């Protein structure tokens, strides 16, 4: 079938007036010889968004290579059929965030999955991803679907899948993703969306699911006579135009952590994300309004969730920073929460494991070793971290933290915020700050420094070319530092399955990891170094110098 034929077939079954209008303009223009229109159609139809371990994620628009009602309808029906083949009594809970069309995609999914014979529960309004992940376990359903693109660009949306039962509420992993993808393709190849059976006989979840999440998350702050004293800090909160505020506010109040000053311009869900170019708190400028609000309020801490509230960003006062505030890296927060988790395990005399993605800082393994806690590296993504048996705490450097694995099997930016705020309040009651606590960490475990090099591409073939060049001709040195060992994961490495990852161990112990992003058109480089020699300031300077040299060397290699 030609590209034009595909476009016409798509138009005939598209129920969305906006995407129909796109095609209604492009098709005749392409037929009249407009090269730009033809290129636009090819971009939309010559490939298809693949259902992978991150589900579906892509730009909104018409076509098989975009997120739209036709694609989502095919995905929902294919996933429903796959679930029913697995369990004739299959059930699913569906949630959605505040992005453009998230509510529409969720409603379509509910009607189509119910029409296919799956028992469906739809969350009552736009809510955070961690609440959907919680609901999978809390309701005991077979699966969960979250319509979200998390922290992707404003025009993106996505479709994230969890499995209950023996999967425990974790995200899907291979080979399940491929099996679901094939079920979706079968629907796309044989069915017209308008003829797929639909039903409105699904349940709307009541407030008890939200109440249960709030109560469980607030309980992270202990309320016994032996519990540490907490003096709540004055903090600023931003939802970055996402869905975190309603639930976060309730949790903060229930946990006794106080009422924050909010970034008013960003507190309500808005799929246009008008105040940020890229709704990711890691991106430059994303937290500028939070910094300004904190300066005006005289705050002691900034808490930010990304748009679906599964990530947490933290900033602390720093007179040396241009804005007077310094955002802690994911590795810094991950290490502090890991130290807190180790102390909690020791106090409660419990055994559990720690885990982090292999691109995260080695700092957590240093904490685990000091406390006699078992530790595992995993592939990137919480779909792997959450599956570590007996997990007590896990994190990844991209602002993802799991502090209560029995409640939810995915990163949770709200529960992580509660744990961090409780830590800050305990330190304040003792006359100390998070910055001073970081110095204590570096004194006890060593100073760890990290950096990233991220290369965004428009031509996806560049990613493969860069990885192939590094794999076929690995550098003998990077930034003047000798490479002592190269680990190539392409054929599997140790306990890890085959993955497009290269790890370079440097003379002196530093580490460089290169991999393609799983959700964006990027090559990502992760650099880590540490020092245990000298004072805290000397340790920090030594680790930072190693990282700076390696960062410059990697930029020269791939950019």
From TrEMBL:
Keywords: Isomerase, Magnesium, Metal-binding, Phosphoprotein. CDD domains: PGM2 (cd05799). SUPFAM superfamilies: Phosphoglucomutase, C-terminal domain, Phosphoglucomutase, first 3 domains. Its cofactor is Mg(2+). One of its GO terms (molecular function) is phosphomannomutase activity. Pfam families: PGM_PMM_I, PGM_PMM_II, PGM_PMM_III, PGM_PMM_IV. GO terms for biological process: carbohydrate metabolic process; purine ribonucleoside salvage. Residues 495-536 form the Alpha-D-phosphohexomutase C-terminal domain. This is Phosphomannomutase. It comes from Microcella frigidaquae.
